[in-house]
Amino acid sequence: MLLPLTVLAHCSFVKETTPATLLYVAGLLAASVLGVVLLARRVDRPLARLGLMAAGVLIFELFTAPMWLSEHLGRYAYVYHDVSWVMLLAWSVALLLLDHRVARRRPNARALPSFALTLALFTPLALLEELVAVRLGIRSYSSELLGAVSGRQLAGVPIEILYYVPVFGALVLSFYRLWALLLDDAALIPVRRRRWLRSIGIAALGVLLFEVMVEPMVQNLGFPAWSVFFHDINVILIACWVLVLGLAAVLVQHALPDAPIPVRFFAGMVVVTALVLPLEAWLISQGHRVYGPTASGEFTGYKLALWGAPVEVAVAIPFYAALIIGFVRYWETVMDNGL
Q: 0.85 cut: is pTM over it?
């Protein structure tokens, strides 16, 4: 009984609804149901597509959960800590509907313009939802996040939301579109030789975008001054991540050259986790990576016997890898196939 009691102790936040938040939940659910009905009428395999999009949103939400708090949504509205399935469903339906609408209105558009247009349509909707959630006392932000942002606000929300929302959308949409290609059984050109400079550039971009966003959760200490370029983000850790992604790609390509894409994808996640976990554990033990009080406050206290890293860190690494690998592989596929 120790683990469940420990987990429950780290889930203390206000779940009870108020009249205003109850209307908010009802509005999101009604909009989500309407969206699902529209999807069922207009797209094939709507539940599979919604499941893929929701998986991407859930992975992102689980990884970034310490950065914000969602309260007053009802005791049955949560899937883990304060991660709410109500908000998850609404974001997933909205992003999927917009992506389908752009594809339907611009059937001949290339991947990059349609991707950018989908994000441009999604961002104001997500921003409006965030503004309402903050006004109703549903959404609040960790002290680490508030300490990392500029202090400028947009209707009571940190102005950095204009960066967070598109990055969130870009990572989740890339993840979804990669798997949607498989769902659609798209005719893809098999590529035997990877263009490494291009792949390194895409990986570096994905890692940088994500690192800037989640920077408030963890401090990077003791690195050379020349390597730091934004708060405490540094080129050494970004280079390490890119190197690990490259090594994983090489190992998977040589070990499983003819395996289906899902097999290679999950093999890549396993390899990345196996390489990053001991490195992350060493950085933590040496004081180079220090998780903030909000993030560490959600740790259950259980650690890996071999490396001593918190269990939550071990779980977060494959989540991170899934979104970054999805981002890299989607854009590699787009460029290789001229999509």
A: yes
